[in-house]
Amino acid sequence: MIELALAVGQTQTPEAVMFWILAPLTVAAAFGMLLVKKAVHSAILMASVMINLAIFYIAQDALFLGIVQIVVYTGAVMMLFLFILMLVGVDSSDSLTETITGLRPIAITAAVGFGGLMVSLLSRATLGRSAVGLQVANENGNVKGIAQLLFSTYVWPFEVVSALLITAALGAMVLAHHQRLQTRPTQRELSTERFRGISLANAAGLPAPGVFARHNAVDVPALLPDGSPAANSVNATLEARGDMLNSGAFELGKIDTSAGEEK
Amino acid sequence: MDAANYLYLSVLLFTIGAVGVVVRRNAIVVFMCIELMLNAANLAFVTFSRINGDLNGQVVAFFTMVVAACEVVVGLAIIVTIYRSRRSASVDDASLLKR
Amino acid sequence: MTTSNSLVYLIALPLLGAIILILAGRRADKWGHILGTLMSASSFVVGLYQLSQMLGRSNQARPVTQKLFEWISVGTFKVDAALLLDQLSICFVLLITGVGTLIHIYSISYMSHDHDRRRFFAYLNLFIAAMLLLVLGNSYLNLYVGWEGVGLASYLLIGFWNQKPAYATASKKAFVMNRIGDMGLSFAIMIAFASVGTVSFEGIKEHVHHTSTGALTAIGIMLLVAATGKSAQFPLQAWLGDAMAGPTPVSALIHAATMVTAGVYLITRSSFIFDAAPTAQLLVVIVGAITLLFGALIGTAKDDIKKALAASTMSQIGYMILGAGLGPVGYAFAIMHLLTHGFFKAGMFLGAGSVMHGMNDEVNMRKYGALRKFMPITFATFGLGYLAILGVPPFAGFYSKDMIIETAFNSGGTKGIILGSVTLLGAGITAFYMTRVMILTFTGKSRWDEEVHPHESPLLMWLPMAVLAIGSVSSGFLLSRGDALVNWLAPLFEEHGEHSELLKPIVVSGLALMMVAIGVAIAFLKYSRQEVASVAPEDVSVFTKIARQDLMQDRFNEAVFMRPGQHLTQVLVKTDEAVIDGAVRGVGQMAMGSGALLRGVQSGFVRSYAALILVGAVLLIAAIWVVTN
Amino acid sequence: MNSLTLLMLLPIFGSVAVAATPKAKETLTKQVALATTLIVAAATIAMAVSFQRDNVDLQFVEKYSWIPTFGINFAVGIDGLALVLILMSTILAPIVVLAGWNESHGGRWSVKVFYILILVLETMMIGVFAATDVFLFYVIFEAMLIPVYFLIGGYGSGQRSAAAVKFLIYSLFGGLLMLASIIALYVMSGDQGGHTFDLQALSQLQMSSTTQNFLFLGFFIAFAIKAPLWPLHTWLPDAAESATPGTSVLLLGVLDKVGTFGMIRYCLTLFPDASKTFTPMILILAVISIVYGAFLAIGQRDLKRLIAFTSISHFGFITMGIFAMTSQGHSGATLYMFNHGFSTAALFLVGGWMISRRGSSTIADFGGLQRVTPVMAWSFFLAGMSSLALPGMSSFVSEFLVLVGTFTRYPVHAVIATFGIVLAALYILIPVQKALHGPTTAGNENLSDLNLREKIAIAPVIAIIIAIGFYPAPLLKVINPASAHVIAQLGFTDPAPTNGDK
Amino acid sequence: MEFSAPVLNYTLLSPMLILLGGALIGVLVEAFVSKALRPITQLSVTLGSLVLALVQVWKIRNEQSTGAAMGSVVIDGPAVLLQASILIISIISVFLIADTEQFTALAASLPGSEEERHALQTGNQVTEVYPLTLFAVAGMLLFPVSNDLITLFVALEMLSLPLYLMAGLSRRRRLASQESALKYFLLGAFSSAFFLFGAAFLYGYSASITFAGIRDAVVGSGGNDVFLLIGIAFLSVGLLFKVGAVPFHAWSPDVYQGAPTPVTAFMAAATKVAAFGAMLRIYYTSFANAQWSWTPMLTIIAIITMVFGSLVAIAQRDVKRMLAYSSIAHAGFLLTGVIALNKAGLEASIFYLFAYGITTVGGFAIVTLVRDSAGEVTDLNRWKGLGKRSPWVATAFAGFLLSFAGIPLTSGFIGKFSIFSAAYESGAKSVVIAGVLSSAIAAFFYIRVIVLMFFTDPVEDGTSVVIPSSLTSVTVIFSMIVTIALGVFPAPVLNFISTLATFIR
What we know:
The structure holds five protein chains of five kinds.
Chain B: H1 4-23, H2 27-52, H3 56-86
Helix pairs in contact in B: 1-2, 2-3
Chain C: E1 2-3, H1 7-24, H2 32-55, E2 64-74, E3 77-85, H3 87-110, H4 117-136, H5 140-158, H6 165-196, H7 201-207, H8 213-230, H9 239-242, H10 248-257, H11 262-269, H12 271-276, H13 278-301, H14 305-325, H15 328-358, H16 376-390, H17 396-409, H18 413-442, H19 459-480, H20 484-489, H21 505-528, H22 542-548, H23 553-599, H24 606-628
Parallel strand pairs in C: 1-2
Antiparallel strand pairs in C: 2-3
Helix pairs in contact in C: 1-2, 1-4, 2-3, 2-4, 3-4, 3-10, 3-15, 3-19, 4-5, 5-6, 6-8, 8-11, 8-13, 10-15, 11-14, 13-14, 13-18, 13-22, 14-15, 14-17, 14-18, 15-16, 15-17, 15-19, 16-17, 16-18, 16-19, 17-18, 17-19, 17-21, 18-21
Chain E: H1 10-32, H2 38-59, H3 77-97, H4 114-121, H5 129-142, H6 149-167, H7 174-206, H8 211-219, H9 226-243, H10 251-258, H11 261-286, H12 291-314, H13 319-340, H14 343-369, E1 370-372, E2 375-376, H15 386-389, H16 391-405, H17 411-425, H18 429-455, E3 464-465, H19 470-488, H20 491-500
Antiparallel strand pairs in E: 1-2, 1-3
């Protein structure tokens, strides 16, 4: 790894200091991603890696990229990750025990092999030319230089990327968008429906969950005057899913402290 | 300061990302590890850009970010779909198709 | 050489008869036997015509040939379908067609109750045609066609009543053992072509003087092998006894008079080879000597009249082979004995058939006895044949057999003494067992079962017997009068030099008659003076037992060839199944097994797939690492 | 008739006509198929008549550009060898159609499909022998497998699909090895003056002996599987056991000949030196095949398997004749191919009739057929006699030529092979005895004899067997120049008689 | 530094632009056209733009230019051939995609939920597949004509992302379908990370991201080749992943099985053309002079791929998985074309790709026809006796299988022959021998299916062959005709390919 040393860097020493402080941090953070149980923690560590990378970009005369890295990547993309994590369950945690036989040793061997071999290879590499540095290229400013390339040489991929963005949007729509397949009934129709139903008992609306019970969570059924649970007070989906709690524990009459704890 | 150090760093990050894909089970974490690999590649691009003294590398890195963003959208959409169907974000649970 | 256009009719007529009879099927049932007989007879007439023509020509111009067409011609291997009728073949032609016609006539009556009689005549005609081809072919390959043709006819006729499994087996056995002999003939032809470049008699004869002795010896030995097969000589003799399964006329024609003598024909025909290959010639003599004793010994113990006669045939052919093996001096005597034997043995077989005809197809002589009174004609004809085979002067056998014995004694040195003694001994044993046959069958008390009503055979049957009996009486005298046959054949064979005269002819005759007398006397003592049991006694010497089992020939063949062969077959069948096909299937299963195994890679877990990719990448990097190191 | 292409097209037209017949009228379908095959046979005979015997060059040559990119032509032309084999194929075809009149019933598919397959196969049979372009040959060589595969698998009996698969995989494997060799030839031709598949041009290629040996093996293994030669034979008994008799006739009688034909036409012509190198080994394999096939035939309990093993023995003879490198061996082998077609046809057809009447192919189930069905029994017997090469039957001439031809150069091989003729007597006579002779056993009493159609079908086969046995000259005159040409090209002359060394 | 406005040659880019335009129209159709009219509108738009693009490709067939898009895109003979192949394959695939039975009624609904049932009842359709298809096709068109690493990467993603999505849209067995989407996506992203990493090293090595620049660097390099080798290796991982070469193949059986069959057909056929097209270009132009470094690697991978694919296919019980492994084996065969590195190899690869693609679509089209009440039946055991029930469908499938097996008189044979002979010509004999042997193994499982269909008695379990829709019939018949025609009379196509197939550099 010989001729890659930059003779040009005027920020040589400060850069080295920065590098040797941040690089271990970055690696540690990245490594941490593998070790922490909770996905959220991984996400945070990932964000820190990205920010560190942004610093490295800036340190390497890639100002524009550094900013984009923070604004777009860390700011938007990682937030998207976090958002989805919230959706999936923010406190979901991964067991780190390996369930697939033999995979972990393979992974570790492969990792060590990969890293070791790559490092060893890099140390062997020569380019046959000395490093140039970006002083000349960034003469008119990094952003301007990139723009120059982006809008002339790479205008075609730049255009095509737009198609990619549309694809992404369309894809998200397809997978996530619940189309309304019929017009939502109007209030009028709903009330007509209620009154024309089999029984007038529900004409005034269904009982709310938790009524007369000691707990008013959505999965606790209301209690009828006789103390029995009113099944229609709980959302049908919850019931179908078997998430409806046994109302007996929440009857008003009996004081049962343990039930609350259980819940 | 040797620019090569950035390359070593990049390799390390890439390796960690690759291993993360193999060892982690949460689909989102797996995906983040892939992002880590992409970032490692970006770092390599930026470093080489500096070594080579031209901005093409940075442009590639820029494109990578855009493409990665698109990928994230699609990927997360798929993961969410799976999650909704299976109530699980573990990639191991999705193993109906085998042999 | 004289050519003729009519030789082919000799063969074509009976062949045509066979084809018509086979193709016509049941439609020919009514007239098939007549057609068959006519065809044979007309072939005989053609033969007589040819003889008359031949007699009209000078000694050297007697052979005639007819080229029919070019049969096989590849490179230098050129074989024409061509016929050669010379002094030797004409003897055979007349014997075959003459005796053949008689037997056709006999069979009309003998087979009259068999509803497949037409088929029988078809086979007989086929046989006549094939046998004629055998003796008329001008090259070994043409001979080979007839050779196998008579084998086929023999097979068909032995197995004529193949609904009986034992008969079917007998026919198969005959064919297979003959094939072994045929293989010898194939080898002989191959060697001949490889070393001489031709396979015609004429061609080889021309080249014989500048062909190596080794090659000639090889050819000779192979021809001998062929002869042993066809002529039931040691060691390929075992089929003949079983061949008696065929209808008796068949035994008379094929297994006594004609086909079995083909070996003698082959050796005499190949005289130019044997004369130039002393080793082969010596082997011929040895085979003949062994067989003549072998057959005679078997004959002493057989209770089945046909098998006893068959053993006798084997023994008599042994004489002929021995005679033929003695070189130029012996050929003519061998042929003479062949001809006389053709008469008397055919006559006796027909007599045996006549007996069987009257005895409900009983063949066990121990169930005969005193038939003289019931079948006088049969007794008379059989008796004449008996006297002929014993060599009692002036019956036919006396002339022919004594000549062979004499020649054997005179062949010189120790060899001559041994051979002479063997032939003498054979003559004695022959007298013994033939007398035994006579006594058991025709004299003594009747031993047959209640329901059997012996009676004389009809005219059509005894007439041929009578004709043959006349032949048995007179043929020897006629053929040897003024050395008629010897002189007739002489142009075909090499001049033979002087040979020492160990014993004078009169001495030989005396010795022979003495041996015969001893044999007859023993037989009288043993079978005429004491009661003959109608069931073969078991308390007999071990030699008798062995002789009854044909001197263990079948056991030997079974133990040495058949069973190992069967085992080998079974082993090979299993090997094919298990090893060769098993290997093929194994390859298939290996592929499937490894497929199933490798399928396990697809565990369904996306992480293991990623690991696979990672490992792949690591391997690539490792390869690079190695390459750049 | 002087266009091979037209001859090849005739059966195709016929198959179109067959396809056009209404489904209900099965008899019409069969009649159309029969008529087509008869016309083709007649056309072939007409062609044979106008064939110039003494001309060793290819005749009736036609050449159309097919895939010019690869230098592939649709090139056909025949010499004596090819003519004889085409003649055999096209004469056998109507016989098979007539003999197997009812074979197509009870198959998986309709009668029409059966005859379409047969006719398509006939086209390919002509093409495979007529091709003078190696690529064309290969294409037909492989494509032929498909109709046969469906004929076995669709209309056979017993383990038909397994047997069909075994047959196909085996053959494909060999074919692929040949493909590798063909590719190598093609590439080399490109290096030496332009890509071509012309047989003549390819035979002029310069190549190292190692290359030549490998390429030879590629071809030879394919042909040895096809022929089949020990130890690559195990597909044949299975296939023959399962196929209908008609299919078996085409399979053993014609398709397998492609193997031995290929050895002459391709192995010897393209790789003369390698052929010489491998001759000792191949001769040993051939001799093993002869003896081994005979022993295995003796040991079989199933009639069809038995016939299959006899064929293995016979193919041993053919191969031996080819590699004996003498004119007798060569001509004999070629004639053997022709004769074997008919004698196997006779065996399979009659055997097939016996089996279909009895409902079993186990030899032990038969007994005493001669009394019950004399004509059938006779036909079988004659077929058997032909198979054991009885003189007077056609196979004798060829077998003897092979033996003589081999003996002059390789006496030991010839001697061992001659033992095969004794074994042949056993493997024919044992089934003859068991099935035709002996008392008529239960189950055989009421078998019906051959009907008129069957008699008409078998009669020409037996007639040809006997006629060629007595008068092979017309065929030999066609074969000899071709054989001599091949031998001469290889630089061989027949060994001179060894006389005069005294 | 003055900014000069970029010049784009729109004629040369028009096939891609037409498709992108069509896709955008499709997106707009989603927004503005009523549900009832959407399917037919989308289908027309899609087919229209595909056909138009094909016409456009035909028009530019003789162009040779690297300047179409500021050097990002190269249009030459192979480009035209590959694009045309992709378009033809796409058109017949779209006929299959038009089968509404194959796609979920509402992707966002939970499998088995009330919502899904409702969507099914109302006949809702995910018509977004059409624009997604167009985007994918556009990406595929761009992939083999890319002339720099950026465009290559963007095209790779552009063809992949829609496919990830489409894989998850099956109507039946939706969990499996979604799983296949997840697997495809995760592994695809994983491999593209490798791809990108490799690109970085190539850039580091050559100081250029254009193929021409890389080639120049390869030709006249000053340093050692470590960066080049790493770059080639990682870039290859990405490309080999796309073509499904062992050990980067693992996604394909699962995804082939899980994805809706029309999508499987589309991606199996078209992706292969695109990916191999790109591979051919980059190996034949940029890496050609570093041949020593990558031919051994590709040779080993090709051999493993053929043998592995063939062996494992034997053990498969599911027709789609079997075809997936068959496609893996074919990837191995196709790699020999890359290894050949000569004009014959290029021509052969293009022919093979086209022939294989068409046959594959045909094969999967047949798979869509065999169904029971719960949708497609892919269990091979239930294909027993298909030949009895529907002889024509079974015969067609048998024809496709025979073509896969490389039996003469089918396109597969000509393909195999030409590609092997090209490889042999360049001295890669080991690959040819391995190819020939694995062809023999492969023949085994193709034939087994034929046995199942024709020689096994049907089991009455409700499996039946639906009467194909007219569009599906068109696909099957067209594929069959092409498969046979290219087998019997390939000369015109071969000639056409031969006149065009030269990479400009």
